[in-house]
Design goal:
Number of helices: 10
Distance between the termini: 26 Å
Helix content: over 70%
Strand content: under 5%
Shape: globular
Radius of gyration: 17 Å
């Protein structure tokens, strides 16, 4: 099961990175606000993609044990980038949400939660509470990769039902809700299922 979780997480992270790159080179965005507010969009997309790239390394046990300094510094950079992406996501959810108020209500709180998870995880690491740090970073990684699952739900459904602004906005916010729910549920299940093995993980980063 651990290998399945690792594979899926890596796959979703790479998919999220690919989506970030694609977003940078695609001028025809489904949300007109992306073109109207390019700076906010870039602060969300670029740090978000870089966060996923660095976050993958954070869960590499060999990196943690053999070069802990790299793990610590890359973690700090990843957390900073993630908080930047979360702040921009909150602005997007409030200022130019694709699906209107419904999207604000659904994605806004999760943007805040993502920023809190990263901040909490960083604070716990600074206070050497590594077991709790691990759990909060798992939560953050799960929420960060949920954008990839949103795409996996949204794009096929849009092709199946048919493209239109009304349909796309409804599918977008629905797929966000589904992705958030799945990722948060799986993260909590995995945290509880692996708590007994935390001693080895903590020893690797101490």
């Amino acid at each position: 099961m651990a290998r399945v979780i690792v594979f899926l997480t890596g796959f979703l992270a790479l998919l999220g990175i690919g989506a970030s790159v694609e977003h940078l080179f695609d001028a025809d965005h489904y949300n007109a606000g992306f073109n109207e507010y390019p700076l906010t969009t870039l602060i969300h997309v670029i740090p978000g993609g870089l966060f996923l790239a660095l976050a993958i390394l954070q869960f590499n046990s060999k990196l943690r044990s053999k070069v802990p300094a790299v793990h610590r510094w890359s973690g700090r950079v990843a957390a900073t980038l993630g908080v930047m992406a979360a702040a921009a996501a909150l602005v997007i959810a409030i200022v130019f949400p694709f699906a209107g108020l419904v999207e604000t209500v659904i994605t806004g709180p999760f943007a805040v939660l993502f920023g809190y998870q990263l901040s909490r995880g960083f604070w716990l690491a600074r206070h050497r509470r590594f077991a709790e740090h691990r759990e909060w970073m798992i939560r953050a990684m799960a929420l960060g990769t949920s954008i990839a699952t949103q795409r996996l739900v949204f794009v096929p459904a849009l092709f199946a039902i048919g493209p239109s602004n009304e349909v796309a906005s409804w599918l977008s916010v629905t797929s966000f809700g589904i992705a958030f729910a799945i990722h948060c549920t799986v993260a909590e299940w995995w945290i509880r299922a692996t708590r007994r093995t935390q001693t080895a993980w903590v020893g690797a980063v101490s």
